[in-house]
Amino acid sequence: MTARRLSLLAAVVAAVVALSVMVLSLIPFGDEKGAGVALIGGPYELVDQTGRVVTEQTDAGKLRLIYFGYTYCPDVCPTELSVMSQALDLLGEDAAEVQPIFITIDPQRDTPAQMAEYVQHFYPSMLGLTGSPEQVAAAAKTYRVYYAKGPGDDEDYLMDHSSFIYVMGRDGSYLAHFGPNTAPETMAEQLRKLL
Question: How much is the pTM?
Answer without folding.
Answer: 0.81
